[in-house]
Amino acid sequence: MNELKPSLLDFTKEELLSKIKPSFRVKQIFGWLYHNYAETYDEMKNIPKALKEELAQEYIVNPVKIAKKEISTDGTVKYLLELQDKKTIEAVWLKMKETQLDENGEVIQEAKYTICVSTQVGCKVGCSFCLTAKGGFTRDLTAGEIVAQVVTLKRDNSHEHNRKINIVYMGMGEPLDNLNNLAKAIEIFKDSEGLSISGKRQTVSTSGLSTKIDKLGEMDLGVHIAISLHAVDDELRSELIPMNKAHNISSIIEAVKRFPIDTRKRVMFEYLVIKNKNDDLGSAKKLVKLLSGIKAKVNLIYFNPYPGTDYERPTRDDMVSFQDYLINHGLLCTIRDSKGMDISAACGQLKEKTQKDL
Ligand code: SAH
Ligand code: SF4
Asked: For residue 91, what are the contacts with CB-CB under 8 A and spacing of at least 6?
């Protein structure tokens, strides 16, 4: 594999301060990176040429390039991004709320966006329903490659640096299997002189590595977690998520109970609904029992089929009955609206399609 050249986006401000002198240059460079989304040293107008040349010897500016993009009618934009070693990952720009205007056409509420980022090229977990898993695992992303996804998408969508944005770690890969780089990226996002995206605007989705949930909790980064639960008994969960054998449902529930969350917030449990597998009311009943005593919120996700899978999408009626059961038994529950349904919605699908096109 090619050596990856480090990028300026790999470093926290403190790390840059130890590398670059005088220190006010770091503030300026930070501004170029996170307020102007610079992709080249040429763009950094007020930085002396000699310093830029020196830095360019060791660091590239942004390690990702847009290789392909698909735009959905609902405002979702799905990106295939190419890394230095030509490997590709996906990131998605999601429009969560439309701009709201008053009767005079003045903006009263700006549109709200969320960026879904990848944390690995491929994934080791090997879930049977997931397209990303089919390609196996290639490598972890560096912190800079995680940060670059947000910078690149904000730049491409002309999203000003001080406008609020949410990040969900729900793209390709298992974030907690790349915990150190993930934690560093979270810190870089939080920097008030950079993108200033607070922990509570960042949600780490995990297939349930319970020991790593504890580690993330100990880091006290202030982020939310979302647990990809998908099943209420260990037998089915192990069929869907093989590593459930090592990190079973009760170990995950215990780890969630220990996780530091803002007392006003809830832990999100994602439940991928697959026809005739886990869409029955018996499962809904067990789910209520399992989550009793946790401040939880359930997000039901329609299984998104792709060529070659045996699993099927559940019916709308079954989905709504499942949701009604949970709500009637005191659980908060939403059905994820499948954004970008007219493009390649679920994780791994744009990459898969592109590889077939080649
Ligand atoms: N590895 C982490 C985060 C990335 S996957 C995790 O598993 O939580 C993000 C979400 O996409 C998970 O909840 C996963 O279950 C879901 N997903 C994967 N394949 C899917 C498919 N074919 N249809 C719908 N959702 C899918
Ligand atoms: Fe990995 Fe998440 Fe896909 Fe499972 S669902 S294979 S953990 S990316």
From this structure: 78, 79, 81, 115, 116, 117, 118, 149, 150, 152, 153, 171
Domain containing 94: what range? 65-357
What is the Cα–Cα distance from 79 to 83, expressed in whole angstroms? 13
Rounded CA-CA distance 10/260 in Å is: 27
Verify that 53 and 196 share a domain, yes or no.
Answer: no
Model pLDDT, residue 346: 52
Please answer whether residues 351 and 90 qualify as being in contact, where contact means their C-beta atoms are separated by less than 8 angstroms: yes
120 C-alpha vs ligand 2 centroid, how far in Å? 10
Dihedral (CA of 17, 19, 23, 28) sign? negative
- Nearest alpha-carbon partner for 338 in 296, 298, 303, 297: 303
Average pLDDT along the chain, 358 residues, taken 10 residues at a time:
85 97 96 98 97 97 97 90 97 88 85 94 95 93 98 97 94 97 98 96 96 96 96 97 95 95 87 97 98 94 91 96 97 83 55 51
Which residue, among 253, 227, 241, 245, has the nearest Cα to 277 in the 3D structure? 241
Is the same domain home to 31 and 177?
no
SS3 358: coil
C-alpha to C-alpha distances, 320 to 156, 254, 304, 316, 339, nearest whole angstrom: 37, 29, 17, 6, 18
120 ligand 1 Cβ < 6 A = no
Does the annotation mark 130 as catalytic? no
Candidates 212, 205, 328; CA nearest to 272 is 205
Question: One of 70, 90, 145, 174 is an active-site residue; which one?
Answer: 90
**Judging by DSSP bridges, how do beta strands 202-206 and 166-169 pair with one another?**
parallel
Q: How far apart are CA 153 and CA 174, in angstroms?
A: 21
Q: Is the CB of 273 under 6 A from ligand 1?
A: no
* Judgement on whether residues 240 and 195 belong to the same structural domain of the protein: yes
The conformation of residue 104, written as its DSSP 8-state character, comes to T
